[in-house]
Amino acid sequence: MAEARALAAGYLDWLARERRASPHTVEAYGLDLRDFLGFLTGHLGEEPDLAALGALRPADLRAFLAARARDGAGNATRARQLAAIRGFLRYLAKTAGLAPLALANIRGPRTKPPVPRALTPDQAKEVAAHTGSIHQPGHAEHPAEQAARDVALFTLLYGCGLRIAEALALNVRDAPRPGSQAALRVLGKGGKERLVPVLPAVRQAIAEYLALRGDPPPEAPLFRGARGARLDPAVAQRAMRQYRRLAGLPEHATPHALRHSFATHLLGGGADLRAIQELLGHASLSTTQRYTRVDAAALLETWRRAHPRAG
């Protein structure tokens, strides 16, 4: 399987560098392709090479999806795995001369997009303001800087609706500060740029964090870890996980929930759906429309709590 693994590694590298896929997507697709190549070894009776991949039929892909279903993989998992395989085979068709496989007739499992789980406005403000107060002893070289960093990061995620990967990709030169440009230029999925307005509270939190760092060069990471490198998303996720457990917040209080909260609270305040789409950097309005389901769910819950006949 050495040849197939090398081809898969080349595809994943291309996804990361050329398509600017998120590290999470690259990791998930890597696991999906590992499952697929492992299945093919048993299905074909030998480790697949480029020729074997070129000889695949739609029935082989359907057999893989059926095997994953028997193993307990849900619809969402199998749909993602099919997407990973489609992308891999199309990549091979373009780069390795593989004959295109007739993929159009292969239907993946139908998945219902999950309703985004937002925090309440009070919970979101609490996370943004206080997560920085929770630290692991001995893990921070500069506790005050780390606390200010976490406050700045989570205030930015909630105040501007950024994905955590977008926030952590920012450099010092990009930082919105008091008196600076009115909008933040963000590089989102697929290399698409968008401008996001920045609230005074976000500017202030970032300014206070940078003041503790002295005068970092413009090309330095805006959010850095204890050793000076760009902050790892896992560190931010761990900080919020620790805080939510100590503060009694729900388990869906994650960095990405702050982005959901940004959109949900804007919609609840009367913002236009198209405007929210632009702020979030969604390619399709249908993705943004999921937040109308959140708002409707919140209204129904309010009715259930308040209406005398709801019980």
UniProtKB/TrEMBL annotation:
Classification via InterPro entries: CB (IPR044068), DNA_brk_join_enz (IPR011010), Integrase-like_cat_sf (IPR013762), Integrase_catalytic (IPR002104), Integrase_recombinase_N (IPR010998), Integrase_SAM-like_N (IPR004107), Tyrosine_recombinase_XerC/XerD (IPR023009), Tyrosine_recombinase_XerCD (IPR050090)
Catalytic machinery residues: R163, K189, H256, R259, H282, Y291
Keywords: Cell cycle, Cell division, Chromosome partition, Cytoplasm, DNA integration, DNA recombination, DNA-binding
PROSITE patterns: CB (PS51900), TYR_RECOMBINASE (PS51898)
Region called Disordered, residue ranges: 123-144
Location(s) in or outside the cell: Cytoplasm
Residues of the Core-binding (CB) domain: 2-93
Domain Tyr recombinase: 114-304
SUPFAM superfamilies attached to this UniProt entry: DNA breaking-rejoining enzymes (SSF56349), lambda integrase-like, N-terminal domain (SSF47823)
Matching Pfam families: Phage_int_SAM_1 (PF02899), Phage_integrase (PF00589)
Assembly: Forms a cyclic heterotetrameric complex composed of two molecules of XerC and two molecules of XerD.
Xref: HAMAP family: Recomb_XerC_XerD (MF_01808)
Protein's job: Site-specific tyrosine recombinase, which acts by catalyzing the cutting and rejoining of the recombining DNA molecules. The XerC-XerD complex is essential to convert dimers of the bacterial chromosome into monomers to permit their segregation at cell division. It also contributes to the segregational stability of plasmids.
Assigned protein family: Belongs to the 'phage' integrase family. XerC subfamily.
Name listed for the protein in its UniProt record: Tyrosine recombinase XerC
Organism whose genome encodes this protein: Belnapia mucosa
Source organism phylogeny: Bacteria, Pseudomonadati, Pseudomonadota, Alphaproteobacteria, Acetobacterales
